[in-house]
Amino acid sequence: MTSLAPRSDFPLLAGDPDLVYLDSAATSQKPLAVLDAMREFQSRDYANPHRGAYELSVRATQRYHDARARLARFFGVADADACIFTRGTTESLNLVATAWGRANVRSGDEIVVTRAEHHANFVPWQQLALATGARFRIAEPGPDGLVHPDALRALITSRTRVVAFHHVSNVLGDTLPVREIADLAHDAGAIAVCDGAQAAPHLPVRFDELGVDFYAASGHKMCGPMGIGVLLGRRPLLEVMPPYMMGGDMIEFVHDETSSWNTLPHKFEAGTPNVTGAVGLAAAADYLDALGMRAVQTHERSLARTAHERLAALDGITVHGPGPTERSGVVSFTVNDIHPHDLATILDARHICIRAGHHCAQPLMRRLGVAATARASFYVYNDEADVDALLAGVHAARELFGHATV
User: Fold this and answer.
1) What 8-state DSSP symbol labels residue 314?
2) Burial of 309 (0-12, 13-18, 19+ CB in 10 A)
3) Helix, strand, or coil here: 383?
4) Which residues make Cβ contacts (< 8 Å) with residue 145, sequence separation at least 6?
5) Which of 52, 61, 236, 400 yields a CA-CA distance of 20 to 30 A from 306?
6) What distance in Å separates the CA atoms of residue 268 and residue 276, rounded to the nearest whole number?
7) Taking 50 as the threshold, does the pLDDT of residue 406 lie above it?
8) Cβ 45 vs Cβ 60: under 8 Å
9) How many angstroms from the chain centroid is the CA of residue 255?
């Protein structure tokens, strides 16, 4: 299988033909189209938006506005002003936990999360519960290691205020039924908050059809730059939420004793915005849409299925997560008697990049009974030769540690 996107589109990969990059779940490589868009803005239209009456500032403001409109289309959001620019998924989720959570969660209320959450969608809710006296409830995975809607249904009660869950797991690669879980939350009068960091780069996301109240995504995982992301929210909730940060551009009027807030989306975008990042992320949306998000999903799943089947066929290797036909482009595995960090070091010597560790999901690692896993993650620029290289590297590591290679 060839790559979906030509390697030559990505300067870092084109400049290092021996590199096998299998860590796109952590961050993706950037196509030239994104880098060019950012450079073009910086060299032609760069100024502080919203604040100047001169033409250059007006152009910068328009570029920022256009980027928001482009991302709203990419994510299926009819109301572009409900697409809030943040630094990424982590800030987006902290924004909701802080601005909505502290205004609406009280002692005796309940917050439900899954054990499979990234720390960014676990710790903010844990800390909100500690600060307010709410009860923090964790939906456990089943025997297969995966969270099923029934586990959430069993915990959701009339006292539940928040149900927070991932769209796609960064560790196991499973995909949760977002609409079904959102309906469970709403039936109980709770809000549904979805971590979309591992879904937005890899499959079509239509926010207005998912039924969730908030959805968070990061630009750097979807061919865009670091330091930019989005929080997608429902306008009725966003309008009554207090600001997350105070400062310039989120103000309507400052009196001596009180202040009033700007309209959406500005209320949640205090300070000088990252226009360069927004422009780059909009270019990434153009790039991915040109490939087709269904094609992206099909390509990654095919590579992950091949890697899963070949790894699972080896004695002494455990592949964690769903079956080979049910996972996204993430394959987490452990090799008997070889620590994942040692495996990653050996692979690095062969110019193969994987991730090793707890993947910011320590509660899930405890449930899996491991301290860490090795994780290979595939994207549009990977092909079957990269799977071959991964398997050859694993065989080399097993030989080095005295394992049989059959």
Assistant:
1) S
2) middle
3) coil
4) 172, 320, 321, 367, 368
5) 400
6) 18
7) no
8) yes
9) 39
Token pair listed for 386 = 């990269």
256 SS3 class: coil
pTM confidence score = 0.97
List of domains in the chain: 7-30+293-400 (3.90.1150.10), 34-289 (3.40.640.10)
Distances (CA, A) of 366 to 116, 234, 275, 342, 358: 10, 35, 40, 20, 10
User: Which residues neighbour 181 within 8 Å (Cβ) at sequence distance 6 or greater?
Assistant: 149, 152, 163, 165, 192
Give me the sheet containing 373-377, strands edge to edge: 317-320, 330-335, 373-377, 355-357
pLDDT in tens, 262-313: 999 999 999 999 999 999 999 999 999 999 999 999 999 999 999 999 999 9
Report the candidate in 275, 234, 300, 281 with the shortest Cα–Cα distance to residue 74.
281
DSSP character at residue 23: B
Q: How many CA atoms lie within 13 A of 396 on its CB side?
A: 16
Residues 6+ apart with CB under 8 A from 266: 50, 249, 250
360 is catalytic: yes
With CA atoms as reference, report the closest residue to 114 among 89, 154, 143, 151.
151
The model's confidence at residue 238, banded by pLDDT at 50, 70 and 90, is: very high
Quick: pLDDT tens for 123-136: 999 999 999 999 99
Strands (E), 255-337: 259-261, 317-320, 330-335
- What's the pLDDT band for 404 if we cut at 50, 70, 90? low
What lies within 8 Å, CB to CB, of 366 at 6+ separation is none
d(CA 129, CA 132): 5
* Number of residues that make up the chain: 406
Its sign, for the CA torsion 25, 226, 206, 158, is positive
From CA 315, how far away is CA 323, in angstroms rounded?
17
- Nearest to 185, CA basis, from 206, 208, 210: 210
